[in-house]
């Protein structure tokens, strides 16, 4: 076995320089995805660049405009336990609290999950629902990408080689949080996830957003569905129509967690239950 | 100064191989075989240990990344000669069948009770949700953890 170097840079610039100097070096966050890939010989990096000491990648803090900045190295467990998220933003800690099991949540990070870009995972759909922005630092400087433009397909993101996710910024989200996750057992990946928020008063939907996850290469969010529901009383027939539109728009696979037909079949019911839960 | 980690209170050196896991270090270097290698990719939970008091997968943690951290394995729990109350309750409830999942179950329960000394049944179930028991003895395991908490 050839030796793989382990680097632990003390600042972001040093981390970027290490990645720029060696295209086969890999950043390490919580390791909950990277290390199993190493153990299974699916990856053979020349060096590991640990992000553990990068202060820029830590902290969950409110910004002046009510947005919440979550450092990329914040763990699912710390996000789930945070009380800083207001109104509909609470979909973010709810998503975090359902990921895998306690041991994985204690070490897995939001930045690592975003960089990995697994469409069956919990973050992509939650961050698309929240209109979050992914903050990135790289050799060419810093940029921010909307979650909807960041998650591009199966294990494919807008991240360029040598770039590091530094933070996720969640803007204010009106209404009450929606997060419904159907999985076969606790601690498994989901079969279907419905994430979003809605402001429903006296039976009338003032605003709504709904994103569907684990049902195709990217999270699905439809302006047509949100327009259909907004400003109207949430009658069962209208909610069912919204559920059908989403079920037609998703592009799920048959897998061990459910067939494509099964996912399409249960989605409208989950949408109805999600909206009833915040009415 | 060479970076080190602490295992059960004893400082030890980090391996040279950057991809060596904490589980490799514990089992192959330190001969602490309480942490089991079930799947080696994160799914079974039998390798779980406490890292700075938090339940974590030793097979998913690079040893080098534990520099400055403190690791506790099941071997530390009865170091004073008497078993942890959780261990005693597991034995009394008949919750140890083949025993392969047991060390990690003990640590998952320890992490739970340290944070939440009076957990509900649902909280106990959630706390061990990442720990698979192939003998499927969950009923007795949950009962034992409840007994350890509620006396
Ligand atoms: C048994 C098991 C069950 C799981 N169940 C679920 C589940 O139900 N839902 C779910 O959503 N997830 C699940 N996961 C995945 C888990 O959430 C991972 O923690 C997460 O996907 C990756 O985060 P990490 O911090 O561990 O990243 P790492 O494993 O450290 O890194 C993942 C990848 O991203 C790169 N990377 C890491 N951080 C950055 C960064 N800041 N910038 C750029 N690149 C970076 C790494 O080089 C690597 O390629 C599960 C994992 C396991 C082992
Ligand atoms: S050996 Fe680590 S989770 Fe299975
Ligand atoms: S007692 Fe055999 S695996 Fe749990």
Shape of chain B: globular
CATH topology of the largest domain in chain A: Uridine Diphospho-n-acetylenolpyruvylglucosamine Reductase, domain 3
Given the helix and strand composition of chain A, which structural class is it? alpha+beta
Uncertain stretches of chain B? none
Q: Give the strand order of the largest sheet of chain A, numbering strands 1, 2, ... along the chain.
A: 4-5-10-6-7
H/E element order of chain B: EEHEEEHHHH
| Count of folded domains of chain A | 3
Helix content of chain B: 25-40%
Structural class of chain B: alpha+beta
Structural description of this entry:
- The complex is a heterodimer of chains A (279) and B (151).
- Chain A is an alpha+beta fold and 279 residues long.
- Chain A folds into 3 domains: 5-50, Uridine Diphospho-n-acetylenolpyruvylglucosamine Reductase, domain 2; 55-170, Uridine Diphospho-n-acetylenolpyruvylglucosamine Reductase, domain 3 (2-Layer Sandwich), CATH 3.30.465; 176-278, 2-Layer Sandwich (Enolase-like, domain 1), CATH 3.30.390.50.
- Helix content of chain A is 33%, strand content 25%.
- In chain A, helix 9 packs antiparallel against helix 10.
- The model of chain A has no long low-confidence stretch (mean pLDDT 96).
- By secondary structure, chain B is of the alpha+beta class.
- The model of chain B has no long low-confidence stretch (mean pLDDT 95).
- Chain B has helices at residues 22-29, 85-92, 102-115, 121-127, 138-150; strands at 4-7, 10-13, 48-51, 54-57, 70-72.
- Chain B has a 5-stranded mixed β-sheet, with helices on one face.
- Chain B is globular.
- The longest helix of chain B is centred in the last third of the chain and has 14 residues, at 102-115.
- The interface between A and B is medium-sized, with 31 and 30 residues.
- The complex binds flavin-adenine dinucleotide and FE2/S2 (inorganic) cluster (2 copies).
- One FE2/S2 (inorganic) cluster is lined by residues 37-40, 42-47, 57, 59 of chain B.
């Amino acid at each position: 076995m050839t030796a793989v170097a382990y680097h632990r840079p003390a600042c972001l610039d040093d981390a970027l320089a290490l990645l720029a100097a060696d295209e086969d070096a890999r950043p390490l966050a919580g390791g909950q995805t990277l290390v199993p890939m190493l153990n299974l010989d699916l990856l053979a990096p020349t060096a590991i660049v640990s992000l553990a000491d990068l202060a820029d990648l830590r902290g969950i803090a409110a910004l002046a405009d009510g947005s919440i900045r979550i450092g990329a190295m914040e763990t699912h467990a710390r996000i789930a336990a945070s009380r800083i998220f207001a109104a509909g933003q609470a979909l973010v800690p709810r998503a975090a609290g359902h990921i895998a099991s306690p041991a994985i949540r204690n070490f897995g990070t939001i930045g690592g999950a975003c960089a990995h870009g697994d469409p069956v995972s919990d973050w992509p759909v939650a961050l698309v629902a929240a209109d979050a922005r992914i903050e990135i630092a790289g050799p060419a400087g810093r940029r921010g990408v909307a979650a909807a433009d960041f998650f591009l397909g199966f294990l494919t993101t807008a991240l360029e080689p040598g770039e590091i996710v530094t933070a996720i910024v969640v803007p204010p989200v009106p209404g009450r949080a929606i997060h419904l996750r159907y999985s076969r057992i606790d601690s498994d990946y989901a079969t279907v996830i419905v994430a979003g928020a809605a402001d429903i008063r006296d039976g009338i939907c003032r605003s709504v957003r709904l994103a569907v996850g684990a049902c195709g290469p990217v999270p699905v969010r439809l302006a047509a569905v949100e327009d259909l529901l907004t400003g109207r009383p949430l009658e069962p027939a209208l909610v069912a129509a919204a559920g059908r539109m989403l079920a037609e728009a998703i592009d799920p696979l048959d897998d061990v967690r459910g067939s494509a037909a099964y996912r399409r079949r249960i989605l409208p019911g989950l949408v109805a239950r999600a909206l009833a839960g915040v009415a | 100064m060479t970076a080190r980690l602490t295992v059960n209170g004893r400082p030890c050196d980090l391996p040279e191989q950057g991809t060596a896991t904490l589980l490799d270090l514990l089992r192959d270097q330190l001969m602490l075989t309480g942490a089991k290698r079930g799947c080696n990719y994160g799914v079974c939970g039998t390798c779980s240990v406490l890292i700075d008091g938090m339940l974590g997968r030793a097979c998913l943690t690079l040893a080098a990344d534990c520099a400055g951290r403190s690791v506790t394995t099941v071997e530390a729990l009865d170091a004073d000669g008497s078993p942890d109350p959780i261990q005693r309750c597991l034995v009394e409830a008949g919750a140890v069948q083949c025993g392969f999942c047991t060390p990690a179950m003990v640590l998952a329960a320890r992490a739970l009770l340290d944070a939440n000394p009076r957990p509900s049944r649902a909280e106990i179930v959630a706390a061990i949700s990442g720990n698979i028991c192939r003998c499927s003895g969950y009923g007795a395991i949950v009962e034992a953890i409840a007994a350890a908490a509620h006396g």
